[in-house]
Design brief:
- The protein folds into 2 domains: 8-151, 60s Ribosomal Protein L30, Chain: A, CATH 3.30.1330.10; 158-334, Alpha-Beta Complex (Phosphoribosyl-aminoimidazole Synthetase, Chain A, domain 2).
- 34% of the residues lie in helices and 24% in strands.
- The protein has helices at residues 8-21, 70-86, 107-124, 175-192, 204-211, 217-226, 240-251, 266-274, 279-285, 301-305; strands spanning 31-33, 40-43, 48-58, 91-101, 127-135, 141-151, 166-170, 232-235, 254-258, 292-296, 310-317, 323-326, 332-334.
- The radius of gyration is 20 Å and the shape is globular.
- Bound molecules: adenosine-5'-diphosphate and magnesium ion.
- Magnesium ion (MG) binds next to strand 8.
Length: 343
């Protein structure tokens, strides 16, 4: 070990991953693609690849049990992993679940967590095939690994975007972040005066976006039906801006993204304005929407353009042109990612 001590807060999550995985080379012929996409890719026979993805949720970092019901937490832990398999254009088939718990939790509480996990397994048609159970002295941790499958010719990496492709996102953005802001506000009100009950009326949509996010497996099926194969794809977990930068970096391209094209639900906008936040900023940097961000060839424009499930939010440029966000007045600024800062 060297004498230098680098604070992990300084380099952030992606800096840490880069440093730790630096110099790793794949030795097995079956290891097709390692670190750097939404899931690892493993040879699964002549026609198929296997996909593997892991995500861990930590109490106090990713969830707060004051407002996150355990059943929802279980559902979300599965959904976020299935989402990464979707982002490779694959179908999740199995999961394993690891939990670290303290004796603060009763068996019944853990059964609630598993009720959510089982519900997600039903929804996404995946089988729970194993896991690990251990004790924790600092809250609850839940780690899920998802295993999926994709036909070799159908796999989509982050790295396939080409100049002139169109940048598309499914659904709408910023809702999960506004749901979190609302829950945090009501939690603070409740803490200062437990007699005041949370006022969440009329906010069902954004609450659901935060508490019960869905992996867009429906979009993967739908794109197949439409005959559209994305050229590159990533799921929106950290925030649109962060994911656009990942996609452009992996594909070695630039991009123009248009503020006026960002899909933001009216309820998300209203809540953002209520909080004195700019709705576009929430959509760009909020995170946890678990929508799919992908690029398509110009020839697929007609099919996607008129479809209410999709928004064309920009276009891919040459890498030298950089990654730009064009605001409503038409001025372009370099796109920066705030994303989630866990460290
Ligand atoms: P996602 O947001 O899609 O889950 P991440 O940003 O968490 O992806 O991870 C990016 C890439 O880095 C993935 O390929 C993931 O497998 C890899 N990765 C993350 N953490 C580690 C680690 N500690 N060791 C090795 N690889 C890691
Ligand atoms: Mg991902």
């Amino acid at each position: 070990m060297s004498e230098t001590r680098t604070d992990i807060g300084e380099i952030g999550e992606f800096g840490i991953i880069d440093r730790l995985t630096n110099g790793i080379s794949l030795k097995n012929e079956t290891s097709i693609f390692g670190v750097g996409d939404d899931a690892a890719v493993i040879d699964g026979g002549p026609d198929e690849f296997l996909l593997v993805s892991t995500d861990t949720l930590v109490e106090g970092v990713h969830f707060n049990l004051m407002y996150m019901p355990l059943k929802h937490l279980g559902y979300k832990a599965v959904a976020v992993n299935v989402s990464d398999i979707c982002a490779m254009n694959g179908k999740a088939e199995q999961i394993t679940v690891s939990i670290a718990v303290s004796n603060r939790f009763s068996l019944e509480a853990l059964e609630e967590l598993y009720a959510g996990i089982k519900l997600a397994c039903l929804e996404y048609d995946v089988d729970l095939v194993g896991g690990d159970t251990t004790s924790s002295v600092s809250g609850l941790m839940i780690g899920v690994t998802a295993i999926g499958r994709v036909k070799k010719e159908e796999i989509v990496y982050r790295s396939g975007a080409k100049e002139f492709d169109l940048l598309v996102v499914s659904g709408d953005l910023g809702g999960a972040y506004m749901g979190l802001q609302l829950l945090e506000r009501e939690k603070d009100v409740f803490k200062s005066n437990p007699m005041i009950q949370p006022d969440l009326d009329g906010h069902d949509y954004i609450m659901q976006r935060q508490l019960k996010p869905e992996a867009r497996h429906d979009i993967i099926k739908y794109l197949k039906e439409l005959g559209v194969k994305p050229t590159a794809m990533i799921d929106v977990s950290d925030g649109l801006a962060s994911e656009i930068l990942h996609l452009c970096k992996s594909s070695n391209v630039g991009c123009h993204v248009y503020d006026e094209k960002l899909p933001i639900d009216a309820k998300t906008s209203m809540t953002a304005l209520d909080f004195n936040l700019d709705p576009s900023t929430c959509a760009l940097n909020g995170g946890e929407d678990y929508e799919l961000l992908f690029t398509i060839k110009q020839s697929d424009f007609e099919i996607i353009q008129s479809n209410p499930n999709f928004s064309i939010i920009g276009h891919i440029t040459n890498v030298e042109d950089g990654v730009y966000f064009v605001d409503k007045s038409g001025s372009a600024v370099t796109l920066k990612a705030q994303g989630w800062k866990h460290f």
